[in-house]
């Protein structure tokens, strides 16, 4: 049962991760700069909001990857 | 050359950028090795080898190459950057067709970021689709051509918690794709080079040593030497053409603005032979990978007419003439399409006229635009043909052995390696030149 619970928890974290990444301003996306040239490197630093968002994303990412490894080990142990 | 490296690391700004890029790429590779929860990495490794030994032509080899071997290991980052690329291609093509998107594109920065946001949503949707189909194929054992038993690498099958775990893996892989997307954006924003293409580059390079080892162990030494020589020759040729450009002279008239003198200089517009870069190749190969996806979704073993058709004509390993011709035509078509999107002769001619520039012996305005268009078309023709030939060369040369995609110097991978490598070095160089003049390239 603990596996089912953890799986659901990991799903929630995954969704959270997707949300957080989508919240980032999509910089340097699209193909406009895939072909080299064009406008390069944005100027200026990031705002406080952006920085906090970065921190939150990194924290969630750490939880996510730890969860993946832990759950993986757990399932293999059971099987 | 080495001095340039030392200088690059002495420049604090550039050093930070380089280290940041390397750091992200390292995490990226790590994620490509960590298996998704519930997957036995040891068993799956054995499976991959078994499949390779049975000699079954694996239709997923090309996708596997693009994901740096992560796909067949069912890693967290199994899907790699492919969904993002496919999404960008789809949106880019739609921009031409759908008026609303075209209007957004013309809006400039704000519109562009909106299109980017759409691309990201589409990426997530594609990631869900692909991860579901990959998991479904892994569960039936079809991913490895039934060379081994699914229960071996998925020990949780036939237990009470099978379904939640399967769904969880789909979620994890989708989130993984999302993280990769973020990595790409981070590299573009704070690192060196273009994130998306650098990530593909890493994935292809990651498979490179393994491919060389395979050739070394499976063939006599002279074959290995021959492959190495062929690779070096190919790379030289590709670099040569990538760097080739036609310089159209432009003369600027002298102007007095207030008491200062402007213009009066003569420069040139560089028109590259291969203006489109590697994009057409990436486009064509990811479009041609759609049939594989369809086959994966419908199941290869059915007697479905569509599947049969796709398997005969569009099997990436089959080297069927229809497949090769389609590939070639797609590359050539995309090359022209891309040049048309990225370089607008009328706009360039207009700008030149505004600043008092002209091409000697050509009148400014419309005749200039026509001239530029004429030159560009003539330049792109060999450029597009070259792209097509290079991409197809190894497939044709290696023939039906099915080794083409495993060949480390495959046309697609060589074009991407050289193209991205050159682009990145040039960007590093432009950073270097802000400080001192000597760079990598002489």
From TrEMBL, chain A:
It is a multi-pass membrane protein. Pfam families: SecG. GO terms for biological process: protein secretion. It is found in: Cell membrane; Membrane. Keywords: Cell membrane, Membrane, Protein transport, Translocation, Transmembrane, Transmembrane helix, Transport. The chain crosses the membrane at residues 6-23, 56-76. Its main location: membrane. GO terms for cellular component: plasma membrane. One of its GO terms (molecular function) is protein-transporting ATPase activity. NCBIfam families: secG. Belongs to the SecG family. Involved in protein export. Participates in an early event of protein translocation. This is Protein-export membrane protein SecG. It comes from Thermobifida fusca TM51.
Automatic annotation (TrEMBL), chain B:
Its main location: membrane. It is found in: Cell membrane; Membrane. It holds the Pfam family SecY. GO terms for cellular component: plasma membrane. It is a multi-pass membrane protein. Keywords: Cell membrane, Membrane, Protein transport, Translocation, Transmembrane, Transmembrane helix, Transport. Belongs to the SecY/SEC61-alpha family. This is Protein translocase subunit SecY. It comes from Thermobifida fusca TM51.
